[in-house]
């Protein structure tokens, strides 16, 4: 099945496959949740001549997050839950490079998928660059990147880029109605706003049930919260559990709400931009610092109150 927004990428990929000399490295660029990983796996199967339902293929090597350390690796090997590393390590790249010294197993082509390539550690990026500069015969690289600017310029320059566009709100709404028909309007609207054109993110937000939280945050921006009652309700809605995916989704939704206000702002949106930047900072720090959910809700609410006041002044 071709996912929404993939038609142009498939056209470019298949045109290249049918040409005389296919580029050896491809950068699949776009927001997280657009289906780039699904495209990479399907494209790799076409490349090596594998059917869609034939299971793992020895000539498709996928490099992604591994265990955090040796202790977590042992848990993985024992079949137990294990913690993932924050990035792709140089040892992982070198292990793949050792496999590239042999010929493909079942044909003349091999695919290496790196997902996400923009989360490689510095040493891993430098090691990969050597393979991109002197690619083994018959080896093709597919680098998935949610934020291509984080890649080394020398890596980007050696790749042909396939761009995966974000979906329009109308497409997102239609997709959610099809895939999640029982979702209430408030949750669907919140998911569409927070996902910013990414269907994968939207479906994740729907699963987290963010409709009520979205409504509360919009009320805080629009009406203020002098007695802190709305912020208290927001804290209750978020809950006291350290649920990192849910907290990150709440932060994404708050950022989306402020982004809308910035678009509608008058001639001086600087304060709104500053509050949005504060939410971006909180989003980056949350996975590391594990903020108390209640305090985080209060900080988000206070930023939204300030943004609402600034929006009124800018338009007033």
Give an overview of the whole structure:
Pfam families: DNA_pol3_delta2. One of its GO terms (biological process) is DNA-templated DNA replication. This is DNA polymerase III subunit delta. InterPro entries: DNA_Rep/Repair_Clamp_Loader (IPR050238), P-loop_NTPase (IPR027417). There is one protein chain. The protein is an alpha/beta fold. 56% of the residues lie in helices and 8% in strands. It has helices at residues 7-17, 36-48, 70-77, 90-99, 122-133, 153-156, 169-179, 185-195, 199-208, 211-223, 229-238, 244-264, 270-289, 293-315; strands at 25-29, 60-63, 110-114, 139-145, 160-163. The relative contact order is 0.11.
Task: Write a brief structural summary.
With 316 residues, the protein is α/β, with parallel strands linked by helices.
Q: What characteristic shape results from the CA principal axes?
A: elongated
- Which structural class fits the helix and strand makeup? alpha/beta
**Nearest-integer average pLDDT:** 87
Residue windows where pLDDT falls under 50 for at least 5 positions: none
CATH fold-level label of the largest domain = Rossmann fold
Question: What number of domains?
Answer: 2
Total strands: 5
The H-and-E topology, N to C, reads as HEHEHHEHEHEHHHHHHHH
Strand order of the largest sheet: 2-3-4-1-5
Percentage of residues assigned to helices: 55-70%
Q: For this structure, what is the CATH homologous superfamily of the largest domain?
A: P-loop containing nucleotide triphosphate hydrolases
What is the alpha-carbon Rg in Å?
22 Å
How many angstroms does the end-to-end distance come to? Answer: 50 Å
How can the largest sheet be summarized? 5 strands, parallel
Helix count equals 14
